Amino acid sequence: MKPSIPLSITFIALFFFSGCAPVISRDILQQVDTTIDFKSVSEKPESYRNEMVLWGGVIISARNLKEGTLIEVLQKPLGYRGEPASGDYSEGRFLALFDGYLDTAVYSKDREVTVAGIVKGRRMQLLDEIEYAYPLIGVKELHLWAERTEIQPDPLILYPFPYRYPYWRHFHH
Predict the structure, then answer these.
(1) 9 part of a folded domain
(2) How many domains does the chain have?
(3) What domain range is 91 assigned to?
(4) Which of 3, 104, 132, 137 pairs as cysteine with 117 (C-beta 3.0–4.6 A)?
């Protein structure tokens, strides 16, 4: 007789591990060259033309053009699931060109994205009053992250005593 694993444990394990899965498909991830870093591509994008990369960051702007939706992204390092890191560190900006229409009200400023795509080269665009050389990525897969909500700590939980003590005001005077 074989020992059996209870069904509830199986479901819990499946639920737990499904939450830790990468957001980009396995087929695309297998094509990504993990030895190519953002800084190298931003310095010489032509040298990496047609290479698959995985980048992410915060959307600065998105525009629908005849060629598709062009998303300007402030690059951020990615975590193990592909989620852009919070904080101020960035190695620059890049453009992600999606072949199709994306609603720019959804793909809007300050939203986080992870992009898997092919390096297409460099595109010069105005950044305020300067010409900026953006690495251009042709999107193969795109993941828009849920908006982060800042949770304010409850002072009653952080400092439970004496504020939660019901008779504190009587002894305070």
Answers:
(1) no
(2) 1
(3) 24-146
(4) 137
Vertex 16 angle, CA 10 and 19, to 5°:
140
Global confidence as pTM: 0.74
Which CATH number covers residue 41? 2.40.50.140
Q: What is the pLDDT along the chain (173 residues), one digit of tens a residue?
A: 544 544 344 333 334 444 567 899 999 999 999 999 999 999 999 999 999 999 999 999 999 999 999 999 999 999 988 999 999 999 999 999 999 999 999 999 999 999 999 999 999 999 999 999 999 999 999 999 998 776 656 555 555 555 555 555 555 55
Q: Residue 11: inside a domain, yes or no? A: no
Cα–Cα distance, 111 to 129 (Å, whole number): 24
Q: What does DSSP say about strands 68-76 and 130-144: parallel, antiparallel, or unpaired?
A: unpaired
Q: Is residue 10 part of a domain?
A: no
In a domain, 76, yes or no: yes
As beta bridge partners, residue 124 has 133
- What is the distance between the alpha carbons of residues 24 and 35, in angstroms, rounded to a whole number? 18
Q: Kindly state the tokens that stand for 127.
A: 């950044």
Alpha-carbon span 72 to 109, nearest angstrom: 9
